[in-house]
Amino acid sequence: MEKDETRKEGLIVLGCPEAPAQVSLALYLAHSLRRSGYIPVVTGNPSARRLLAMADPECHYIDEMLDLDGCIEDTAAGERDYALTFVLVHRESGVSYAGTLSVVSAGRVIAVVFGKEAEALASLIDFECEKVVAQVVHNPMPLKKAIDRVMKWDV
After folding, report:
1. Does residue 41 fall inside a structural domain?
2. Is residue 1 included in any domain, yes or no?
3. Tens digits of per-residue pLDDT, 55-105?
4. What domain range includes position 58?
5. Is residue 53 part of a domain?
6. What's the CATH code of the domain at 129?
7. Phi/psi of residue 10, each to 5°?
8. Which H or E run contains 83?
């Protein structure tokens, strides 16, 4: 893919699809990215992407959805990169994805850690990235407020 220097993309990495708050968080992040001048791109496993596609069928929030492995491969190969990446973390695999992207991406990486085990998962992050942590499962509002503070999206 030929790089377009005018295209400032923001990546949202979805975690396992069983977290109730994930779809609303992803749509909120996509909306906020677009409002801030980024083109929202989402990656994740097929089930997580399908849930998000169903919530945004006309692509009002999400511009592009990518296969997770292909996205990481392209980023690692330098074929594509993102100015800003949010990794939604509610399982240990999310910590691994955040760690990988913090190494292969030149952009800003933010681990958004949530769920019942948020503090324990956040303690596993021993690599360079920003963290937003809230022990939320169903109610995404505390996490939204924490993201707004970090991103200065307070409205």
Report:
1. yes
2. no
3. 999 999 999 999 999 999 999 999 999 999 999 999 999 999 999 999 999
4. 9-151
5. yes
6. 3.40.50.10160
7. -120, 130
8. none
Under a CB-based contact definition with an 8 Å cutoff, are residues 114 and 143 in contact? Answer: yes
**CA 135 – CA 143 distance, rounded (Å):** 8
Give the model confidence (pLDDT) of 19-67 as tens digits. 888 999 999 999 999 999 999 999 999 999 999 999 999 999 999 999 9
Residue 143: CB partners within 8 Å, gap ≥ 6? 21, 25, 112, 114, 132, 134, 136
Q: Scan for tokens 């993102």, then name that residue.
A: 82
Enclosing H/E stretch for 104: helix 92-104
Q: How many domains does the chain have?
A: 1
Q: What's the alpha-carbon Rg for the chain, to the nearest Å?
A: 14
Residue 128 inside a domain? The answer is yes
Nearest one of 94, 133, 87, 86 to 114, comparing CA atoms: 133
Please name the residue that has the structure tokens 């100015």: 83
- For Cα atoms 138, 139, 140, give the angle at the middle one, nearest 5 degrees: 110
